[in-house]
Amino acid sequence: MAKSAFKLHIKKGDTVLVLAGDDKGKSGKVLTVYPEKSRAIVEGLNIVSKHRKPSAQNTGGKIDKIEAPIHISNLMVMVGGNPTRIGRKVNENNKLQRFAKKTGEFIK
């Protein structure tokens, strides 16, 4: 797949709110971001059952519950416990940095 040509508003470690899907209204911490697929894995959300085949170590096989990726368009960053849109502007060090549009504060 081609690499995405745009920057994402979500980064690893952000707290996000889910806007759509079965987990709508829930929030969690971003564990992994896949920019080429525009998806992110959020801790404890979008749980799916993964069926494992029997192996030498696990002769009976098993069903694991794991987090599946969520499209980033369905996630909104939370700053100070409130969901907010994200923008980019130049900070005092002349670096482009994310900021919360609701409060205007910079996000680390």
Describe this structure in words.
With 108 residues, the protein is mainly beta. The chain has no helices and ten strands. The protein has a domain at 15-81: SH3 type barrels, CATH 2.30.30. The chain has strands at 15-18, 27-34, 39-42, 47-52, 62-67, 70-71, 75-79, 82-83, 86-90, 96-100. The chain has a six-stranded antiparallel sheet with strand order 6-3-2-1-7-8, with no helix packed on it.
**On the 0-100 scale, what is the average pLDDT?**
92
Number of helices: 0
Number of strands: 10
| General form | elongated
Helix/sheet category: mainly beta
Widest sheet, order of strands = 6-3-2-1-7-8
CATH topology of the domain at 15-81: SH3 type barrels
Proportion in β-strands: 35-45%
Provide the succession of SSEs. Answer: EEEEEEEEEE
Radius of gyration: 17 Å
Into which percent range does the helicity of residues fall? under 10%
Tell me about the largest β-sheet.
Answer: 6 strands, antiparallel
Briefly, what CATH class of the domain at 15-81?
Mainly Beta
Report the CATH architecture of the domain at 15-81. Answer: Roll
Oligomer: single chain
Intertermini distance = 30 Å
List low-confidence stretches. Answer: none
